[in-house]
Amino acid sequence: MRWLMLLATLPPTPTRHRVGVWRKLQRMGAVRLRGSAWILPETAETTELFQWLVQEIETIRGEATLVHVERIENMADEQVRALFHKARTVEYQAVVHGCREILAQLDRHRANVAGHAAKLRSTLDGLKRELDRVQGIDHLEAPAGDRARKLWEATAARLRAAETRPRPAGGRHRASLPPSGSTWVTRPRPHIDRIASAWLIKRFCDPDAKFGFADAADAARKGVPFDVLGADFGHHGEDCTFETLVKRFGIKDRRVRVIAEVVHEADLHDGKFSRSEAMGVDLAIRGLAASTSDDHELLERGMAIFDGLYAVLKRTS
């Protein structure tokens, strides 16, 4: 990859010139390489941006040199890319934090979203403008950008649903829990979120629960659908199905909360929780799936893994 390197020396006073140049470099998405050297990937657009800045620096009696670089001798391209990714990730994280705060407020004001919708919508629109700005200078497409956009879209969908949902006539929860002995139905070939959710249902909600498998279109006819698109017991906002069930069942168990974070990280890979156990549990479930052809057997063996995880957490607590 070819790079543009701007070498600039600015007069010490007035300081407003130095601050102004620094802010323009930030808005371009440039990163500081070392000392007074700033770099951008070489494109027609970035070349023009740096050329204009060179002229501006010279008009304030500074010195600027624009260099086209094939490679940086003591840094691999991956290391340079990492500098750009790190800078953009910090900015994306601000959007992620804002979206999570909106989701938290939607949960907090579930019974009266209408009274807070205008303020939340305004905040969400501001986050969208910031997200677009950061993506506009994300020259090397940091992985955090895709995660931030997906979370923003999920937050927007959640807010739209809350704005259009009719208010219930009474104070009952939107959907009561299914009766004991119900058949819970999910998609075939269950993976970590579905297996963990089945374990949670059997262990904390209904010991007599039965489980079945069906395509999304048939799930509701065959039982109580879970982890199926559009299901009440499914993904909501940034929550995986396991987290949704924890909230709906009102479970306060600390070990279940830990398992929820493990399942979330293994299922969504969004970096919300730093759970080192997630990779190992995910790998174990994948191993079971590869060696077990029957879905019911896979579910039973997978739930045993969560029995073990729950027991281990009890000993370490």
Q: What would you say about this model in short?
A:
This protein has helices at 15-28, 44-59, 77-108, 117-136, 143-164, 192-205, 216-222, 241-249, 254-268, 277-291, 295-316, and strands spanning 3-9, 31-34, 37-41, 63-69, 183-186, 210-213, 224-225. It is an alpha/beta fold.
What do you see in this structure?
The chain has helices at residues 15-28, 44-59, 77-108, 117-136, 143-164, 192-205, 216-222, 241-249, 254-268, 277-291, 295-316, and strands spanning 3-9, 31-34, 37-41, 63-69, 183-186, 210-213, 224-225. It is of the alpha/beta class. The strands form two sheets. The protein has a four-stranded antiparallel β-sheet with strand order 2-3-1-4, sandwiched between helices. Helix 9 packs across helix 10. It starts with a strand and ends with a helix.
Helix and strand layout, with pairings?
Blueprint: E1 3-9, H1 15-28, E2 31-34, E3 37-41, H2 44-59, E4 63-69, H3 77-108, H4 117-136, H5 143-164, E5 183-186, H6 192-205, E6 210-213, H7 216-222, E7 224-225, H8 241-249, H9 254-268, H10 277-291, H11 295-316
Parallel strand pairs: 5-6, 5-7
Antiparallel strand pairs: 1-3, 1-4, 2-3
Helix pairs in contact: 1-2, 3-4, 3-5, 4-5, 6-8, 6-11, 9-10, 9-11, 10-11
